[in-house]
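Retro notes (design track)

What went well: tokenization of the new backbones is finally stable.
What didn't: we kept losing track of which sequence belonged to which structure.
Fix going forward: every design gets posted as structure first, then sequence, in one message. First example under the new rule, 192 residues:
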């Protein structure tokens, strides 16, 4: 790993490694008992990445960085900076809802209050559920009931599958082509 990072740094193209949804590496039993310990394989990979990056930063002031996103505060290596993200407060939820083109209609929907409760301050889930309210052919009451009975970590998956199944084949192909993209990150953000 160190050799790889060194080769990339030598090309003046530092890496931004993103391990998204790291909670997928936490067994259900560790979530239930509150220990939140990831699997040993995930810990080994994370430690190897952190170790390689630490060595490269000390030896050659490497600019490569690692971001790990996780829904839970599991025991991460001390070299990682923990940045807690809070759930959206009611004011932010209201702002997000008002950005909808049909906000006045959506707010009158009988399932609007349930959507706010089910989203539980999760901005992405709130967006998806609000869009769902704008689709009259969708049985939102049944879907919300299913989401209410499911743990938070699986809600987005259920909703994503439901929304994906409502797309035509052409729309699915279009979405698949859009799913690979590049997000520009300034050098200043890498050095944090």
């Amino acid at each position: 790993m160190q050799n790889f990072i060194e080769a990339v740094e030598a090309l003046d193209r530092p890496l931004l490694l993103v391990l998204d949804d790291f909670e997928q590496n936490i067994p259900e039993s560790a979530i239930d008992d509150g220990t939140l310990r990831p699997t040993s394989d995930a810990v080994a990979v994370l430690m190897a990445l952190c170790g390689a990056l630490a060595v490269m930063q000390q030896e050659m002031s490497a600019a490569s960085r690692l971001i790990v996103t996780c829904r839970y505060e599991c025991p991460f290596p001390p070299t990682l900076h923990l940045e807690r993200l809070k759930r959206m407060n009611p004011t932010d939820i209201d702002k997000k809802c008002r950005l909808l083109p049909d906000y006045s209609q959506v707010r009158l929907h009988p399932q609007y209050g349930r959507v706010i409760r089910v989203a539980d301050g999760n901005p992405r889930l709130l967006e998806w559920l609000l869009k769902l309210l704008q689709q009259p052919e969708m049985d939102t009451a049944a879907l919300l009931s299913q989401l209410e009975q499911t743990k938070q970590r699986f809600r987005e998956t259920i909703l994503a599958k439901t929304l994906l199944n409502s797309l035509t084949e052409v729309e699915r192909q279009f979405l698949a082509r859009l799913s690979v993209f590049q997000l520009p990150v300034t050098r200043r953000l890498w050095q944090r």
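Added context from the reviewer: The chain has a mean pLDDT of 79.
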